[in-house]
């Protein structure tokens, strides 16, 4: 049984505020980087001990306070206490349902599932830091479970409603669990989402001190300039449905998910250090379980964060799995050069890029790639980072 993607909604930095805008940004090899807006980490933050050397990233153009509370049947006082991530998920999931041609009344009372991936909880930290109390709405306004529950409540959905925090893989794990829920018959339809907003400085400071961020605030995937990742914010939502049901109902099938899987690194050099062997095992298992031949793959939308250690490990894992490719080189890409690393929403950003690439028949160029990381011997590993737009060659 296969699962179809029938609807897409997104809100990414710069002019990538919808699927068409994202595609324009990808093809133009455009970076949405900007200085940190003063209203996020303003003068107060920069003078405090919570200052950071990072001076930019990838931020949404629209202010975080913008929200049509009346449309979503939320009282003004309650809206004030809501994490902006909740508000954004309501808006973007609605756009995804609209993109799928689904009327809200048609899913009310159904077993539709909701799975949301997240990483940060900046708004909760911000309220505590400023000593702000939102009274009776404090628990529901910043509760992490409510990111998913808010959607189930508004749309009146009775299926599983789960918020997932597995850091940067969160939205992909959400996608996997939603797919599993559909395959087991627990739900016929699922709303999958990922969200990431930067509301205050302490998360940025902590990640900087951990040594994972680029001093320039930019991601350089697989590039010799890679010195960490550039943070980005945004929200993405996909509508999933059993493929045969989507065909039966005449839904717009944007893409088909043939397989998915989840594993863990186990013990490595350090808690945040990736395990290349585990990555290989996961990719092989997913292909085997899906009945697919890895040799037929022509393009991989990689994690590609732009970290000097992570990129070579990932590239080598991809090489080991796809080394028998029928038509080398295998092309690699990463959306993070364009819109930054969206952390809890980053996985879905990559999935949406891949879906758009299939629809357009083009592999977009990789933004911020000029010269390969010296630890990634592309020619030897029969890999190539896409640096111009290329046509897909289908078997």
UniProtKB/TrEMBL annotation:
Residue ranges annotated for the Ketosynthase family 3 (KS3) domain, each copy included: 1-395
Keyword Transmembrane helix annotated: no
One record GO biological process: secondary metabolite biosynthetic process
Superkingdom classification of source: Eukaryota
UniProt entry keywords in alphabetical sequence: Oxidoreductase, Phosphopantetheine, Phosphoprotein, Transferase
Record Pfam families: ketoacyl-synt, Ketoacyl-synt_C
Record InterPro entries: Ketoacyl_synth_AS, Ketoacyl_synth_C, Ketoacyl_synth_N, PKS_Beta-ketoAc_synthase_dom, PKS_NRPS_Biosynth_Enz, Thiolase-like
Gene3D superfamilies per record: 3.40.47.10
Keyword RNA-binding in record: no
Molecular function GO labels: 3-oxoacyl-[acyl-carrier-protein] synthase activity; fatty acid synthase activity; oxidoreductase activity
Family named by the database record: Belongs to the thiolase-like superfamily. Beta-ketoacyl-ACP synthases family.
Cited PANTHER family: ASPERFURANONE POLYKETIDE SYNTHASE AFOG-RELATED, FATTY ACID SYNTHASE
Protein name, as recorded: Ketosynthase family 3 (KS3) domain-containing protein
Organism encoding this protein: Aspergillus tanneri
């Amino acid at each position: 049984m296969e699962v179809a993607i029938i609807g897409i909604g997104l809100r990414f930095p710069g002019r990538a505020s919808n699927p068409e805008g994202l595609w324009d940004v990808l093809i133009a090899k455009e970076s949405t980087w900007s200085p940190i807006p003063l209203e996020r980490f303003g003068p107060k933050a920069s003078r405090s001990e919570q200052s950071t050397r990072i001076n930019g990233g990838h931020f949404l153009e629209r202010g975080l306070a913008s929200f049509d509370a009346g449309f979503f049947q939320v009282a003004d006082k309650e809206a004030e206490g809501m994490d902006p991530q909740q508000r954004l998920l309501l808006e973007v999931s609605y756009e995804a349902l609209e993109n799928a041609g689904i009327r809200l009344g048609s899913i009310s009372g159904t077993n539709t599932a909701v799975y949301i991936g997240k990483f940060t909880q900046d708004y909760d930290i911000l309220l505590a830091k400023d000593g702000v109390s939102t009274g009776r709405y404090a628990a529901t306004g910043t509760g992490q479970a409510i990111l998913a529950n808010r959607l189930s409540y508004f749309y009146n959905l009775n299926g599983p409603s789960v918020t997932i925090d597995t850091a940067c893989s969160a939205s992909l794990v959400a996608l996997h669990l939603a797919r599993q829920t559909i395959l087991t018959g627990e739900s016929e339809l699922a709303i999958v989402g990922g969200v990431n907003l930067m509301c205050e400085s302490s998360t940025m400071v902590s990640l900087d001190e951990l040594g994972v961020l680029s001093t320039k605030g930019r991601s350089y995937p697989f590039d010799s300039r890679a010195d960490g990742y550039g943070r980005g914010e945004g929200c993405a939502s996909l509508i999933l449905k059993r493929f045969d049901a989507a065909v039966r109902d005449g839904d717009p099938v944007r893409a088909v998910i043939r397989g998915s899987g989840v594993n863990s690194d186990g013990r490595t050099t350090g808690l945040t250090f990736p395990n290349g062997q585990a990555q290989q095992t996961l990719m092989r298992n997913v292909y085997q379980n899906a009945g697919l031949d890895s040799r037929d793959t022509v393009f991989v939308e990689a994690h590609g964060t732009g970290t000097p250690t992570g990129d070579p490990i990932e590239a080598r894992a991809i090489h080991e799995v796809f080394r028998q490719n029928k038509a080398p080189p295998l092309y690699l890409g990463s959306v993070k050069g364009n819109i930054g690393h969206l952390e809890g929403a980053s996985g879905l950003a990559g999935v949406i890029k891949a879906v758009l690439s299939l629809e357009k028949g083009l592999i977009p160029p990789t933004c911020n790639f000029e010269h390969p990381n010296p630890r990634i011997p592309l020619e030897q590993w029969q890999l190539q980072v896409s640096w111009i737009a290329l046509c897909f060659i289908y078997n």
